[in-house]
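**Paired protein data**
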Amino acid sequence: MTRRLNQAVQATAFIAFPAMMFFMLAGHDAALTIYRDRLAGELLAYVAPTCAFLYVLDPLSAVLQGLNKAVVSTFISVVTSAIRIAGIYYFVAIAHDGIYGVATAVAISGIVSCMLSILCVRRYVALWINFTNIGKMLIAAAAASIPIHEVQHAFRLATPWLQVVCSGIIGILVYLIVAVYLRIARPEQLVKIPFIGPLLAHAMGRMPFLT
C-alpha cells in the first residue's frame, strides 16, 4: 500500500507540473476556446501556480478514506473551508479584490488542505517524497515552458484553439523528452500512454542521448 501510495503521488506530480506550466502560459487561450470568456482564462492563469497542490490533494484524500479515517478527512475539510470563507471575506469585503480575491482564498485553502493531508497521511503510512525527482520534474516543466511561450508568440494572430493545440502538443513532447533524459520516466513506461504511447516510446528509444 505504501509503494502504491508513493507511486500515485509521484505520478500525480509528474502530470501536475506540466499542466501548471501550460495553464500559466496558455490558460487564457484555453478558457477562451472552451468558455468563450477571457476573464475565465485570466483566473485560470492566476491560480495555475497552485494547481499542483490541488492535484496531489486528491490521492491523499482518497488514502485517508481508504484507511477508514473519514473523521480526519472531514476535519481537514472543515478547517480549510473556514480558511476559505475567512479569506473570501478579507480579500473581497476588506481588500476589495473582487473575483481575484475569491481565487486567492481558494488557492490558499487548497495549499493548506494539501499540507494538512500530507501530515495526516504520514501518521498512518510511510509517505516519502522524492525531492530529487520533484526538482527534475520542475526542470522538465520549465524546459517545456519555452516552446509553449514561443508558440504563443508565433501564433498570436491565429485563432485561440490553434494556439492551444500547437502549444500543448509541442510542450508535452518537450516535457516527455526532458523527463526521459533526466531519468524520471523511461521509454517503456511511455507505452502505457493511450494511443500515442507506443509511437513515443519507439521514437525516444531510437534517440542516442536517451538510451
